Amino acid sequence: MGFRSQTAEVAGGIIVLPARIIEPVMTGLQKFLGIKRMPWVFLLPNLLAVLLFSLLPVVVNVFYSFTGSDRLYPSERPFVGTSNYATLFDCGNYFDASSCASDLFWRAVGNSLIFVPVQVICMIGVALLAAVCLNREIKGRGFFRAVFFFPVMLSPVVVALTWQWILQRNGALNGILMTIGLEPVNWLVFPNTAFFWSVFVTVWAHMGFYTIILLAGLQSIPKDVYEAAKMDSATNWRAFTRITLPLLKPVLLVVFVLCVIRSVQTFDELYVLTGGGPGSATMLIVQYIYEVGFAVQPRNFGLAAAASILLGIVLLIFTALQLRLSRNSQNG
Amino acid sequence: MTFTRIGLRAASALLAVTALTGIAQAQEITVYCDDIGFGCVTMAPIAKRFEAENPGTTIKLETVSYQTIVESLPVQLESGEGPDAAIITDLGGLSRYYLDLTPYVNVASFEKEYGQVLQWLRGADPSSKAINGMPTSLTVNGAYVNLALFEQAGVPVPKEGATWAEWAEATRKVSKATGTDFSMEMDRSGHRFASLAISYGAELVDDKGQPVIDKGLKDAIEQFVAWHKDGTMPMDLWGAVGGATHRELFSDFLNAKTVFYFGGSWTLSQMDKEVGDLFDWEVVPAPCGPSSCTVMPGGGALVGFKHTKNPELVGKFIDYVAQTKNNAEIIAASVEIPSSKSLIEGGVTYPGASERTQQSLSTFIAQIPKMAPAAYRFQGWRYQRAMMNAMTTRISQVLNGELDVDTALDRIKQDVDLAIKAAGSK
């Protein structure tokens, strides 16, 4: 009664006509498919979108990874078997990038293996610290929450250019150093400092997003638990390690996985800030894929596709790990 | 009543015919160009005039970044999309997408005016007689020198014929005496490095279109690395950046932070506007290597693309821009070196450009006859960009101790071979 009459009232009788058409169709479908299969009918539009925009590109990418030539149309791309994968894996010693045919790919893999854990640890550490501070009753809390979130809204290219102006030889940071009588440092010229700033800039740019998630998690912890701990004379540190962290575990897990996936995909900020340099010190996997597939000419779409499939497999492993961990967490 | 009805019908018919004719005549093409030199800004008045002379046509000049032309445009073209025409710089690399303009342009005039440069647009097909586009301007690599610093240091400016080593020695003395940050700088660009390499005897590409890694290239890389190690050149450009990224720090020369800057003719207009007479500067003749005193030629071309729905309009517009009067007007506004024979021979007046800029243009133009055949061959090579990218990437790795020079040379060869293989031809 409710649905039908409401529709008629809200739409002034206009929607009644399609409802009259749809209802018999749906009833017929339900009779034909059975009630258990009916949810698929409602899922169909979304499923089609996922198939078209997510699964189809993956299939196309897999196809490209087994084909050669710099042509884009599948019909113009000859099948080359596993030759692209063979090029990527052609190594004398996997621990020495110089011995590999695709040395830049392995340098990028090596850099990513260092960059991802360092960045994730820093990102979660700083975001958690910021969330804990912003969760307290401090003056101007709303302002500080906004300040931490602002960089998230900036375009990665703007972030990178801003930091380039700060860090370059004649940049703002060296200006400050010289004002206080210190020697200027060419921050982006040395591999170690360039790597440090790569981590710093990406953490600065994205921590606000994770801070907000963690802040929401902190606010969902009941206050009376802390009051009980206070009555038992628990120190702040003890309350943090024994109450906050355990209760925040499910949120931390989500943040961890999101952070790892985002970190593996890092590209835009570093491409503008360092171009992967000095040398190849800050080149990560996505930049390698981009350069091979789009920046270098003729474009090696096949090799880029093969490298991106390998990256996809790594991300899939992380996702599976997350599902496993979250299931364990729910179970116990 | 009947009269009114007939009148209304006649008016409706007339309106319909007019509308249909309008639809049939209304044609629009999109042209990608950047805003430096011979680009959207300087072409705009000519495009407006063309539209006025050809009612019903619209020439939409779309200003895009140089990066878009280098990186995005080829992908758009490969997928059968993109603009109807564009000013491009990878002349040979994009050859398979070009529209043959022969039916729409004055072929004899194009052949007479642009001769050798037209061949660069024909890619790997030496027998082709197609007219694929109009070479817009010639660019020439070259060095800008801060004469005020030389004078202040009391060091004589090296004369024409001085070697790269002599320039390095002289500029080191100047930077030491004047406290200037650096002696020499060179854009992080394979094209700029090719000038040095060819003057050191590098062939880069042979007659069969295969990459050449020789002693000349090795010597040039070793010299270049030595200049970075001893501080003659800053690490900011070639050392601090990775991959195939193009980077330049012309601002260092504008701010008198380097004595010698190796860039190109396309920044003359910027130099004229931003420095003018603030300090004494000039463009110097090409420094010499053991093999020659060459720099690299370059330039852009206004080309049409095969996928256009209005090939005739594309051809007509390009033919219009190529007409000497129009071409001269754009060249003068962009303060660039013309590529058309009659403008080179007859000279171009650059209204508003300072005497110093006019003189610098003359110096650039004077380098053209001195360019080595290897430089022309490299510029027209289909895999030029693959080699240039490989050189920037690998030299930066040498500067950072990731590779030694010999390994870098092997890698350059390997990178270009892989690119040739990827393109599916030998």
From TrEMBL, chain A:
<feature type="transmembrane region" description="Helical">
    <location>
        <begin position="40"/>
        <end position="64"/>
    </location>
</feature>
<protein>
    <submittedName>
        <fullName>Alpha-1,4-digalacturonate transport system permease protein</fullName>
    </submittedName>
</protein>
<dbReference type="InterPro" id="IPR035906">
    <property type="entry name" value="MetI-like_sf"/>
</dbReference>
<feature type="transmembrane region" description="Helical">
    <location>
        <begin position="239"/>
        <end position="264"/>
    </location>
</feature>
<feature type="transmembrane region" description="Helical">
    <location>
        <begin position="194"/>
        <end position="218"/>
    </location>
</feature>
<keyword id="KW-1133">Transmembrane helix</keyword>
<keyword id="KW-0813">Transport</keyword>
<feature type="transmembrane region" description="Helical">
    <location>
        <begin position="302"/>
        <end position="323"/>
    </location>
</feature>
<feature type="transmembrane region" description="Helical">
    <location>
        <begin position="113"/>
        <end position="134"/>
    </location>
</feature>
<keyword id="KW-0472">Membrane</keyword>
<feature type="transmembrane region" description="Helical">
    <location>
        <begin position="270"/>
        <end position="290"/>
    </location>
</feature>
<keyword id="KW-0812">Transmembrane</keyword>
<comment type="similarity">
    <text>Belongs to the binding-protein-dependent transport system permease family.</text>
</comment>
<dbReference type="InterPro" id="IPR051393">
    <property type="entry name" value="ABC_transporter_permease"/>
</dbReference>
<dbReference type="InterPro" id="IPR000515">
    <property type="entry name" value="MetI-like"/>
</dbReference>
<feature type="domain" description="ABC transmembrane type-1">
    <location>
        <begin position="109"/>
        <end position="322"/>
    </location>
</feature>
<dbReference type="Pfam" id="PF00528">
    <property type="entry name" value="BPD_transp_1"/>
</dbReference>
<keyword id="KW-1003">Cell membrane</keyword>
<feature type="transmembrane region" description="Helical">
    <location>
        <begin position="146"/>
        <end position="166"/>
    </location>
</feature>
TrEMBL record, chain B:
<dbReference type="InterPro" id="IPR006059">
    <property type="entry name" value="SBP"/>
</dbReference>
<dbReference type="Pfam" id="PF01547">
    <property type="entry name" value="SBP_bac_1"/>
</dbReference>
<keyword id="KW-0574">Periplasm</keyword>
<keyword id="KW-0732">Signal</keyword>
<comment type="similarity">
    <text>Belongs to the bacterial solute-binding protein 1 family.</text>
</comment>
<feature type="signal peptide">
    <location>
        <begin position="1"/>
        <end position="26"/>
    </location>
</feature>
<protein>
    <submittedName>
        <fullName>Alpha-1,4-digalacturonate transport system substrate-binding protein</fullName>
    </submittedName>
</protein>
<dbReference type="InterPro" id="IPR050490">
    <property type="entry name" value="Bact_solute-bd_prot1"/>
</dbReference>
